[in-house]
Design goal:
Layout: H1 5-16, H2 28-46, H3 50-67, H4 70-86, H5 90-104, H6 110-127, H7 131-148, H8 151-167, H9 171-188, H10 194-207, H11 211-227, H12 231-247, H13 251-267, H14 271-316, H15 322-398, H16 404-427, H17 430-435, H18 437-448, E1 454-459, H19 469-490, E2 494-501, E3 506-513, H20 529-540, E4 544-549, E5 555-562
Parallel strand pairs: 1-2
Antiparallel strand pairs: 2-3, 3-5, 4-5
Helix pairs in contact: 1-4, 1-6, 2-3, 2-4, 3-4, 4-5, 5-6, 6-7, 6-8, 7-8, 8-9, 8-10, 9-10, 10-11, 10-12, 11-12, 12-13, 13-15, 14-15, 15-16, 15-20, 18-19, 19-20
Length: 564
């Protein structure tokens, strides 16, 4: 997958910082001030101060919405989405881009509309892997670029569309857009896209088996990458060049290109920065809850002081109205107790909400790390093992009298490659990614069935039905955890997995076993961390979890979640 941040970051800095927001006759000073504040927020984002940028954007929205300035509101939402985009939270950026697009469509600002559609196209293509929707947004962006007569953005958008088509191996559909960039890049393009353009030309001619042209463009892309700062594009060029060299049988050169790819990839490792930014975003959410608790505590303390003052006044009147004050004291006592109970319940509710968010954040982090580790094993370790095996294979072919130890080493490398691939598939099952949830669950039941326990799978939904990638991953991991619990603790011989979809788009899941069961009343039922994780996942999906179990009579767990 190709990186998108260079394009997004370039558009943010060139379009937003230099744009003039529409200012009407009324509230002139207020709109000018908000426009200046937004530019400050953009600069904070450019400098990596995402938390400060987000807070400033939130304050701008509070003032901009009453002014009904759609241009300013849309630009602010785009900056919020940009903050989340830059620290790799595509779901939040996707939400704010869509929200901002609603306001942008009410304006005549074609550049702003182009920016939103480009950003949405990036998320669909590079994060959600929904290329049809991504290309749709890119083409909408192309439409607004034409209306704005902005040749610079036309070149960038055509490059994006070509890139998207090439990423799904639709080279013939992507080539007209690439050809457009080839014609106008020198006059209207940017140095930031030179490496990418040369690489895309090389990939195209590689697919068409025009070896000399492909090699020429690969070498051009590498030369431009070494002379500039586009390390991501340079690394991808080395990787694609290695694939091409392997395809034409030049294994030694392919190995050298893979070595360069791995070296550059290590240099641009942003794991530490990504972790830091995500932590800042998470801390920002927690701080909101903390401030809410402090506000409630302050109100409670003020009320307590008021009650003490009223009681002091009542004591001074004790000699005159002793009976009334006595009754009033009792009433005040119950009032205070009730007030404390209400406040305590509010505190507990907020604390539970914070704990729920922490668990959900940890679970999201685990899923993200699973994806990263699986991707790293598949794209890096597996590639290195394949390269090493390839190198030894070439050496073996050159020397007929190959030492037996080299042959054994080749076999060991192949075995290691297979184990790394299997581990990658265990972290994120390839069957789930390629064919969907229901094929993966059927395979999961088959894998967990043995001579001791049999898992039966029944589903009333068509196997080919697909949901969003995030939704399928969450459901898959929930059912995996429940199957693990059955294997470890139930002592069951039969397990059943049943799925159905209601007309109101509710996915119903039932997991049944004939094991020893357990008591679910509060006195005996101690939730393990696995159950807490499952509850947290279901609650985050706005679903319901029902556990029905009795000693000696097995367990039925029912989950109902709205389909995303």
């Amino acid at each position: 997958m190709f990186p998108k941040n260079w394009f997004f970051y370039f558009l943010i800095t060139t379009i937003l910082l230099n744009s003039d927001y529409s200012i009407g006759q009324g509230n002139l000073t207020a709109k000018e001030q908000l426009s200046k504040e937004l530019k400050i927020a953009i600069r904070l984002m450019r400098n990596g101060n995402y938390d400060k940028s987000l807070i400033k954007c939130r304050n701008i929205l509070k003032k901009a919405i009453p002014l009904h300035d759609n241009d300013l509101i849309a630009s602010t939402y785009n900056t919020i989405g940009g903050n989340f985009d830059l620290f790799s939270d595509p779901e939040k950026s996707f939400y704010y881009y869509n929200k901002g697009l609603i306001y942008a469509e009410k304006t005549t600002n074609f550049k702003l509309k182009n920016l939103f559609h480009n950003n949405l196209g990036n998320i669909y293509c590079f994060d959600k892997k929904e290329y049809i929707k991504g290309i749709y947004h890119y083409k909408k962006s192309l439409e607004y670029s034409n209306k704005a007569r902005d040749t610079f953005e036309l070149v960038l958008t055509n490059l994006n569309i070509a890139w998207a088509y090439f990423d799904i191996n639709e080279f013939d559909q992507g080539y007209p857009y690439l050809n457009f960039v080839n014609q106008y890049h020198q006059k209207h393009g940017s140095e930031l896209t030179e490496v990418a353009l040369a690489m895309l030309n090389a990939i195209y001619f590689s697919d068409k088996n025009q070896k000399s042209k492909a090699i020429t463009y690969y070498k051009k892309a590498i030369a431009l990458g070494n002379a500039g700062n586009e390390k991501f594009d340079l690394a991808l060029t080395h990787q694609e060049y290695a694939k091409f060299l392997t395809k034409i049988g030049r294994y030694k050169e392919a190995y050298e290109q893979l070595v360069l790819y791995n070296s550059i990839t290590e240099q641009i490792d942003n794991q530490e920065k990504l972790h830091k930014v995500k932590q800042e975003g998470f801390n920002l959410e927690i701080e909101e809850y903390k401030r809410e608790i402090e506000r409630i505590e302050s109100e409670y303390n003020a009320k307590q002081k008021l009650l003490i003052a009223e009681q002091s006044i009542a004591k001074k009147k004790l000699s005159i109205l002793i009976v009334i004050i006595f009754i009033g004291g009792i009433l005040f006592y119950f009032y205070v107790q009730n007030s404390r109970l209400i406040q305590r319940n509010r505190f507990n509710s907020l604390r539970n909400k914070i704990q729920q968010n922490i668990i959900n954040a940890n679970l999201s982090g685990q899923e993200t790390e699973r994806k990263k580790i699986a991707s790293f094993l598949h794209d890096n370790i597996s590639a290195l093992l394949s390269s090493a095996g390839l190198h030894l294979a070439v050496l073996s072919k050159k020397h007929v009298d190959t030492d037996e130890e080299i042959s054994k080493t080749i076999l060991l490398l192949k075995e290691a490659h297979d184990k790394v691939r299997d581990l990658s598939h265990e972290l994120i099952p390839s069957l789930l990614v390629r064919f969907g949830l229901f094929y993966a669950l059927e395979d999961l039941c088959e894998k967990n069935s043995n001579s001791s326990i049999s898992f039966e799978y029944e589903c009333c939904i068509t196997k080919t039905t697909r949901y969003s990638e995030e939704f399928e991953l969450k459901i898959y991991f929930i059912i995996t955890e429940l199957i693990n619990n059955i294997n470890k603790h139930s002592g069951a011989t039969i397990g059943k997995i049943f799925l159905e979809q209601n007309d109101d788009s509710i996915l119903k899941i039932q997991i049944i076993d004939n094991g020893v069961g357990f008591k679910t009343d509060p006195k005996h039922f101690l939730e393990g961390f696995g159950i807490n994780q499952i509850k947290a996942r279901v609650n985050a999906m706005k679903g319901k979890l029902i556990i029905d179990s009795k000693l000696g009579m097995g367990t039925i767990i029912t989950i109902q979640v709205p389909i995303e």
